[in-house]
């Protein structure tokens, strides 16, 4: 029989799928003997069953009531007992942490009678009414669907009436009055009374948590984080402990290390005389956790103790939610904490040093995406000038954008292509779309664990929070700082690493990590972050099986790629070499009417191309350089058809007939026009019909090799033929290539070894890879074209047109141009690898599409048995790191 409920004493951290992360970790802490208020967890399975059918699964109610009885026995109080009620929290908690995305309801079990009992037994009337008004408010909004602003307004009104600066200044009588107001508001808004029966409160709260799985902000968050929609949430029902019992009580959040930098020490926020939600909600300003050491040294010492225990147990950064009830510490939540990329590298290195994890585990804890983020530029501190405001550096990086004051405006401007900074007093889950749209988030309240900070860090978005000098005026669409008014649309520079905001667009400089890659990796060990990155890179390089090359077309790019650790060039495109001044020569070649004219044009191109190749081969001396023969359709080198036609027509209108050259050009452009150039005369097709082109390019390569050899170099050129469909094409081109190589070799007396291979970028090529391998000395997957032709859509045309709709509908989890589509394109890759190597054992196979620098795709290429990936120079470190992680 299925079981839907587990006591905290029965679960453990390995049961997160069933109990959710929160439930599994509550159980783990319970088993570790940490002070966790007793409770039980309703499984995600129950949630899935409920969401599928709309009704509670059979047996759930009975199981809950059985477990409740146990809680009541332990507590010696019953739910709803009028003279001394047991109170419960009902807390969401999914497999993957979704902070603040779903619902939690506190103080379940209070009613008009029991609130009096609670007042009496606690000896604190204010506390009892405060708890009751919290329940009515949370239940009213979460379970009964009343807009939470309705309650907030009533609260604000009362505070204004009493002249109370915050909720602490409302007394028991005020709070009792507020409860009445809230109850009336609920009746007014829903036509229903606030339910007095504790059992009904509990049941409805559990179902509301189930339903919050499908709430709008939870869905949005899942889509962004690629969390599947069908997991469901668990529900934790837990005995309440009270942080709102007076000044010797309070609630807080803590990290075992700084989640922004990874620095060791105790980080967090504490709020005295408050229930948990207040801490992140920014209702009142929190104090740094250290302050707790002064307020309550004993509880603080205990907390630090438990933090150490947890970090050693989980062998990782933990984040913790706790409450102190009249001096006694209770642990309410822990999990392996989210962290910035910087902190991830720093913590991994430190945990290795502390022998808590192995170097391989350290490598598993960092990521290529994180590394890419650390390579982003930062603001040039020497040039930024005076900061407008300072706040807490909650999520690092540098971002520039126009100030906006609400989520909708952020979304609107971002959709129009503008970069924006979302400025709020504090954020709530309703601000999520705006945070997604913004480059950075700036808040005037809240600490490192505020909603803004946690969510921004999770997204890798720049965030400065708690910038208390600024006063945000969302109605006026502006903020005030010192004597300055900053209106909507004003450009700001937000430095999430330093916690500063600057007016205007501040200049950027390379990050320390980028400088490290740019200079000498094998130099002395530098401190901190750079050292941590260096160690992860070393670990990755030590175990990776995939080679990493770069896509580079110039000596400068080649040299940079080499500094970044590229082991050669996997794709050297030649089309860029035909642009600029050389366009004229290409034009002459295309327009040539006689063999002599064409040969003259090609002969003029030859030395220029040779020089290009000499430079690149020199920069990559000793390492392979895969040069792709010309790929794009020739008309790309001619003027735009419409522009040319308009120019000629305009001239004619002024009585000037077109020049012979223009007429000729227009004729050629018209002749060569293609409806689908992507599927037209390009790649090998061009080489086979444009006489002399391949020969010229190969001659340039061969002569460059000779040049380099004569200069004492070690050139390793490889010739790659693009867009092969069938082995016949490759055979014909290869004959021509070999002939030219032989000629140059003979004429120069220098032997030339230059493998000739092909791109595999059309489905037909992948499916006939066994045949193609007869002629190909290597394969390189061109996954951009292979994705386009496999799916039958052109990236340039469709990404803007319908990809966002496809992502919304869940047809893609991520664009197939970003991450390789394993199921379709990946299948073709696997077929081609298997059949290619069957025909030619040991066939060298790489990939040179942009997927070569995408972490997830790198893992796929590793598993598919490729020899190397090739990506843009800046992605080379990312690919190295992920290739290492793939080999773990
Ligand atoms: P979230 O997933 O959004 O963090 P939680 O379920 O952790 O939501 O609840 C939010 C806060 O409510 C907790 O941090 C804690 O302070 C408070 N809370 C939850 N359960 C209890 C409890 N049993 N006793 C006291 N406070 C609680
Ligand atoms: Mg929590
Ligand atoms: Mg291609």
Automatic annotation (TrEMBL):
Record flagged with keyword tRNA-binding: no
Keyword S-adenosyl-L-methionine: no
Domain of life: Bacteria
Segments forming domain PEP-utilising enzyme C-terminal: 535-884
Catalyzed chemical reaction(s): pyruvate + phosphate + ATP = phosphoenolpyruvate + AMP + diphosphate + H(+)
Pyruvate phosphate dikinase AMP/ATP-binding domain ranges (all copies): 61-285, 295-349
InterPro entries to which the protein is assigned, alphabetical: ATP_grasp_subdomain_1 (IPR013815), PEP-util_enz_mobile_dom (IPR008279), PEP_util_AS (IPR018274), PEP_util_C (IPR000121), Phosphohistidine_dom_sf (IPR036637), PPDK_AMP/ATP-bd (IPR002192), Pyruvate_phosphate_dikinase (IPR010121), Pyrv/PenolPyrv_kinase-like_dom (IPR015813)
Domain PEP-utilising enzyme mobile: 418-499
PROSITE patterns hit by this protein: PEP_ENZYMES_PHOS_SITE
Residues in the signal sequence: none
Known cofactor(s): Mg(2+)
EC number, as in UniProt: 2.7.9.1
Keyword list, A-Z: ATP-binding, Kinase, Magnesium, Metal-binding, Nucleotide-binding, Pyruvate, Transferase
Pfam families: PEP-utilizers, PEP-utilizers_C, PPDK_N
Recorded family membership: Belongs to the PEP-utilizing enzyme family.
Descriptive protein name: Pyruvate, phosphate dikinase
Organism this protein belongs to: Streptomyces vastus
Chain's gene name: ppdK_2
């Amino acid at each position: 029989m299925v079981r839907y409920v587990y006591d905290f004493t029965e679960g453990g951290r390995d049961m997160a799928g069933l109990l959710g992360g929160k439930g599994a970790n509550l159980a783990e802490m319970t088993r570790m003997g940490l002070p966790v208020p007793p409770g039980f967890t309703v499984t995600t399975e129950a949630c899935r069953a409920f969401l599928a059918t709309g009704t509670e699964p059979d047996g759930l109610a009975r199981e809950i009531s059985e477990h409740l009885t146990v809680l009541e026995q332990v507590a010696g109080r019953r739910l709803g007992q009028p003279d001394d009620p047991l109170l419960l929290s009902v807390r969401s908690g999914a497999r993957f942490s979704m902070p603040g995305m779903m619902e939690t309801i506190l103080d379940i079990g209070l009613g008009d009678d029991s609130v009096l009992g609670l007042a009496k037994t606690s000896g604190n009337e204010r506390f009892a009414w405060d708890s009751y008004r919290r329940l009515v408010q949370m239940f009213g909004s979460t379970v009964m669907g009343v807009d939470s602003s309705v309650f907030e307004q009533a609260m604000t009104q009362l505070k204004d009436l009493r002249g109370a600066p915050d909720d602490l200044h409302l007394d028991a009588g005020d709070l009792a009055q507020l409860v009445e107001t809230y109850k009336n508001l609920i009746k007014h808004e829903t036509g229903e009374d606030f339910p007095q029966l504790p059992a009904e409160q509990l049941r409805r709260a559990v179902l509301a948590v189930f339903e919050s799985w499908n709430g709008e902000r939870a869905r949005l968050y899942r889509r962004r984080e690629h969390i599947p929609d069908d997991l469901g949430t668990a529900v934790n029902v837990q005995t309440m402990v009270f942080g709102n019992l007076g000044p010797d009580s309070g609630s807080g959040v803590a990290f075992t290390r700084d989640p922004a930098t990874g620095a060791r020490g105790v980080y967090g926020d504490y709020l005295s005389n408050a229930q948990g939600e207040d801490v992140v909600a920014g209702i009142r300003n929190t104090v740094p956790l250290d302050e707790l050491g002064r307020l309550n040294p004993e509880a603080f010492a205990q907390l630090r103790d438990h933090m150490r225990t947890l970090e050693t147990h989980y062998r990782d950064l933990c984040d913790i939610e706790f409450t102190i009830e009249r001096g006694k510490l209770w642990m309410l939540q822990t999990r392996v904490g989210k962290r910035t990329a910087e902190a991830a590298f720093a913590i991994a290195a430190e945990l290795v040093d502390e022998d808590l994890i192995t170097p391989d585990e350290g490598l598993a804890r960092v990521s290529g995406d994180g590394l890419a983020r650390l390579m982003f530029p930062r603001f040039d501190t020497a040039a930024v000038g005076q900061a407008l405001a300072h706040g807490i550096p909650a999520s690092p990086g540098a971002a520039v954008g126009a100030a906006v004051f609400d989520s909708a405006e952020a979304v609107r401007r971002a959709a129009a292509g503008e970069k924006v900074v979302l400025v709020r007093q504090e954020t709530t889950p309703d601000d999520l779309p705006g945070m997604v749209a913004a480059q950075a988030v700036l808040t005037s309240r809240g600490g490192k664990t505020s909603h803004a900070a946690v969510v921004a860090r999770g997204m890798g978005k720049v965030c400065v929070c708690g910038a208390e000098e600024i006063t945000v005026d969302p109605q006026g669409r502006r903020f005030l700082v010192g004597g300055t008014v900053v209106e909507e649309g004003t450009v700001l520079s937000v430095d999430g690493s330093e916690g500063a905001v600057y007016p205007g667009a501040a200049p950027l400089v390379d990050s320390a990590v980028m400088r490290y890659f740019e200079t000498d990796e094998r130099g002395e060990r530098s401190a901190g972050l750079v050292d941590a990155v260096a160690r992860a890179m070393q670990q990755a390089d030590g175990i990776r099986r995939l080679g990493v090359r770069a896509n580079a077309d110039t000596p400068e790019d080649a040299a940079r790629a080499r500094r970044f650790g590229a082991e050669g060039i996997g794709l050297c495109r030649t089309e860029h070499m035909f642009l600029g001044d050389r366009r004229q020569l290409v034009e002459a070649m295309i327009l040539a009417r006689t063999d002599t004219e064409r040969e003259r044009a090609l002969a003029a191109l030859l030395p220029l191309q040779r020089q290009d190749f000499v430079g690149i081969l020199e920069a990559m001396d000793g390492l392979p350089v895969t040069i792709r023969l010309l790929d794009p359709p020739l008309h790309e080198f001619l003027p735009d058809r419409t522009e040319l036609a308009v120019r000629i027509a305009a001239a004619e209108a002024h009585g000037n007939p077109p020049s012979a050259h223009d007429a000729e050009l227009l004729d050629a452009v018209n002749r060569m026009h293609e409806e689908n150039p992507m599927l037209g005369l390009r790649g090998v097709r061009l080489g086979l019909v444009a006489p002399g082109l391949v020969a010229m390019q190969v001659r340039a390569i061969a002569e460059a090799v000779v040049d380099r050899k004569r200069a004492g170099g070690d050139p390793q050129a490889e010739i790659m033929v693009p867009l092969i469909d069938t082995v016949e094409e490759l055979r014909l081109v290869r004959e021509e290539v070999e002939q030219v190589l032989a000629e140059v070799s003979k004429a120069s007396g220098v032997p030339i070894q230059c493998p000739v291979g092909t791109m595999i970028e059309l489905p037909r090529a992948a499916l006939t890879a066994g045949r193609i391998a007869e002629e190909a000395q290597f394969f390189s997957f061109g996954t951009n074209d292979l994705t386009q032709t496999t799916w039958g859509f052109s990236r340039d045309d469709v990404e803007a047109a319908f990809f966002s709709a496809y992502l919304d509908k869940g047809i893609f989890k991520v664009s197939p141009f970003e991450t390789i589509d394993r199921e379709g394109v990946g299948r073709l890759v696997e077929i081609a690898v298997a059949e290619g190597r069957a025909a030619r054992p040991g066939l060298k196979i790489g990939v040179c599409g942009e997927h070569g620098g995408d972490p997830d795709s790198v893992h796929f290429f590793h598993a598919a048995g490729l020899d190397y990936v090739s990506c843009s120079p800046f992605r080379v470190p990312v690919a190295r790191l992920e290739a290492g992680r793939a080999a773990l």
